[in-house]
Design brief:
The protein is α/β, with parallel strands linked by helices. The protein is built from 15 helices and 21 strands. The chain has 2 domains: 268 residues, Aldehyde Dehydrogenase, Chain A, domain 1; 189 residues, Aldehyde Dehydrogenase, Chain A, domain 2, CATH 3.40.309. The strands form 6 sheets. Strands 14-17-18-13-12-19-20 form a 7-stranded mixed beta sheet, sandwiched between helices. A 5-stranded parallel beta sheet has the order 9-8-7-10-11, sandwiched between helices. Strands 5-6-21 form a 3-stranded antiparallel beta sheet, with no helix packed on it. Helix 2 runs parallel beside helix 8 and helix 10 packs across helix 11. The N and C termini lie far apart (56 Å). The structure holds adenosine-5'-diphosphate. The site of adenosine-5'-diphosphate has 15 residues, from helix 8 and helix 9. One of its GO terms (molecular function) is aldehyde dehydrogenase [NAD(P)+] activity. Pfam families: Aldedh. Keywords: Oxidation, Oxidoreductase.
Length: 508
């Protein structure tokens, strides 16, 4: 019997430098919004220049959206929702379209990854997998889920039937950041569309290119006009207009705590739209002296803070090390930090790419300076490098002797800066781990199974890793506690945000 082999597509192939080189220098035309199935310029005609962090040069421009642009996109999403062109389409048909979209993302995986790297600076290897391939996987996953979601019949008393329906909420507004725009965007867009909603997406002003391309692919896959719209521009203009809209039903967001607070305010001042916020982190990564393999712990922990220049919300940015292994472990971490090859993110030989913008780079360096003023020692990195390229690169940085009350311990850097703090015993580790306002991710390295379970219970975070760091499978939810936010992306739990529960009573 002959077995039919699946056709080869780019997703099955190893990333090749020649393939990257063929597209890395392409001239990029200015981009408009994507509203009602087509690309349109801003109402005002204004544009925002996009600066590439690779070399500091202007890459292209995107429409600098106005309130009128956002209102137009919301109106388009609303009418698409109300006439049922997507919300009432048979689930099996919606499923077909989302799976087709996954295939188109795979077809364009390299172009999408390169586009994203050119405006945000993530190393291409990571962008290809974590952006393009993960986005394709996300659309496939939620596409597959559409026709497997059932309503419920409640166990009511008497002769009244209680039905529980999952109804799409209507218009979803999504605001996403510049790190992993395609991955984080897809975590929101795919389940929102799968549930039957229309969506208006606002990318970060400096990282819109791959998401604009995604919207075109959605149209090509058969998502009807008006169902998936993208409005580019400043958060303080189009983001605010979305937040204050009376016609957006749910707002989903990933970004800073400061913007998260504003969104809650906008909701309170408008229609009380539900807000799901995925905010920052200052995640503790705790190394006990009984860790099964300290060398492996150091290697994984270094990747867990330094990949993508530390611009990862779940980065293990606080390293807590038990006192008796502290000096050796910090030396090992510093060795890893110094060994990473930082460079042009479109070169496969670079293990770490660029910091996203000059202002981010300056903020990172300010954190290092303040930490030193507060008594910490810089044992690796601490400076800008490769400035002759014009790009924004920073050496992976290890700061030791950071105290709990220090700025670097309490506040998120969102850059390649690791804060190291020693601890005495388990109780001390828990106290230090829980000493910030954040609760997104954590890591624990120990051979003691009972201790691992106690730490899972005691550490206040939405995600915790034991003897690993950075688990990323789509089947497991991601979300924070405390001031790291609420609601979850990923897994079937993410669908809850995009449905209203509707109860129906029927007298029999
Ligand atoms: P970061 O520090 O990661 O840039 P931000 O919270 O500033 O985090 O940005 C995340 C997203 O929030 C971006 O798309 C940005 O444009 C948007 N944003 C920023 N300010 C506002 C605002 N006032 N209202 C709505 N969205 C905003």
């Amino acid at each position: 019997m002959s077995v039919r082999k699946p056709p080869l597509n780019k997703a099955n192939l190893m990333l090749q430098q020649e393939a990257i080189d063929a597209v890395r220098g392409q001239t990029l035309a200015p981009r408009g919004h994507f509203i009602d199935g087509r690309s349109i310029a801003s109402d005002s005609g204004d544009v925002l220049d996009i600066i590439s962090p690779i070399d500091g040069a202007i890459l292209t421009s995107v429409a600098a959206g106005s309130k009128a642009d956002m209102d137009r996109a919301i109106t388009s999403a609303r009418s698409a929702f109300e006439d049922g062109r997507w919300s009432k389409m048979a689930p099996a048909q919606r499923k077909k379209i989302l799976i087709k979209l996954a295939e188109l993302i795979e077809r364009d995986a390299l172009e999408l990854a390169v586009l994203g790297v050119r405006d945000n600076g993530t190393e291409i290897n990571m962008a290809y997998k974590a952006e393009s391939l993960s986005a394709a996987g996300t659309f496939r996953y939620y596409g597959e889920a559409i026709d497997k979601i059932y309503g419920q019949i409640a166990p009511t008393a008497n002769s009244v039937l209680g039905l529980i329906h999952h109804a799409p909420v209507g218009v979803v507004g999504a605001i996403v950041p510049w790190n992993f725009p395609l991955m984080i965007g897809s975590w929101k867009i795919a389940p929102a569309l799968a549930a039957g909603n229309s969506i208006v997406l606002k990318p970060a002003e400096s990282a819109s290119l791959s998401l604009l391309h995604l919207a075109k692919l959605a149209s090509e896959a058969g998502v009807p006009d008006g169902v998936f719209n993208v409005v580019t521009g400043k958060g303080s203009v189009v983001g605010e207009a979305m937040g204050l809209s009376m016609d957006v039903d749910v707002l989903v967001f990933t970004g800073s705590g400061a913007t998260g607070r504003r969104l809650l305010e906008y909701s309170a001042r408008s229609n009380l739209k539900r807000c799901y916020l995925e905010l920052g982190g200052k995640s503790p990564n705790i190394i006990f002296n009984d860790a099964p393999d300290l060398a492996q712990a150091a290697k994984v922990s270094a990747a867990g803070i330094f990949r993508n220049s530390g611009q990862v919300c779940v980065a293990g940015s606080r390293l807590l090390v038990q006192e008796d292994i502290h000096d050796d472990f910090v030396a090992e971490m510093s060795r890893h930090a110094k060994d990473f090859k930082v460079g042009n993110p479109l070169d496969l030989s670079s293990q770490i790419g660029a910091v996203h913008s000059l202002s981010e780079l300056e903020a990172n360096l300010q954190f290092v300076q303040t930490a030193q003023e507060e008594g910490a020692q810089c044992v690796a990195g601490g400076k800008r490098i490769l400035s002759e390229t014009g790009g924004y690169y920073m050496a992976p940085t290890v700061m030791s002797g950071v105290k709990v009350e220090d700025n670097l311990h309490q506040n998120e850097v969102f850059g390649p800066v690791l804060a190291v703090t020693p601890f005495k015993d388990e109780a001390d580790a828990i106290r230090i781990a829980n000493s910030t306002v954040y609760g997104l991710s954590a890591g624990v390295w120990t051979s003691n199974l009972s201790r691992a379970h106690r730490m899972i219970e005691e550490i206040k975070s939405g995600v915790i890793h034991v003897n690993t760091y950075g688990g990323s499978d789509l089947t497991v939810p991601l979300g924070g506690v405390k001031q790291s936010g609420n609601g979850h992306d990923k897994s079937l739990h993410a669908m809850d945000k995009y449905f209203d529960l509707k109860s129906a009573w029927i007298q029999l």
